Amino acid sequence: MPQQPARRAGSVVRPRPPAEAPPRELVPLERAEALRLLGGAPFGRIVFTVRALPAIRPVNHLLVDDTIVIRTHDGAALTAAAAGSEDTGVVVAYEADAIDPVTRLGWSVVVTGFARPVTDPARLARYRALLSPWVNASMDHTVAIQPDLVAGYRLIAGAAAS
Q: pTM to 2 decimals?
C-alpha cells in the first residue's frame, strides 16, 4: 500500500470536488413540505448544548403528529439536558437532508424547538414500538422535539443548467 505524503502543520485539506456541476438555486420550502421530507429521512443530527458548548449527534428519528421523536440511552448528554428541563424543555436544533454529492441536488431541513422527555406511558409504548434504535445499546429514554421554527430548502438546477 503506498504511503501518504506527510502533511505540514496548518495545511488545508479539501475534499476532492466532483465533476463541475452548474450552479444550483436554493428554493425555500413550506413548513408542511419540509416536515414531510424530514419525516421520510432515515436519520438526522441533533444539536444541543453541553457545558455551554454545541454538541451534535447523529440519530434516527420518527415524525409523529409534527413532533420529532428520538430515543436515547441513560448516560446520553441529551437525556440529562432534557430531563433537567422537563417543564420548559431544552432548546435544540434538528437537521436532516438528502443532497446528492455528484448532481448537487436535494433538500435540507433544520428545525429549532424545545426537546422534552416523554413520560406518558401510552406515548412511550407507541414510540418504542415504532422506532428501533440503530445502535446496539439500551435506549430506554425517549425525547420529543416540538418544531417551533422550521426552515427547509431544495437545491434545484439553476437557470444556467436548464
A: 0.81
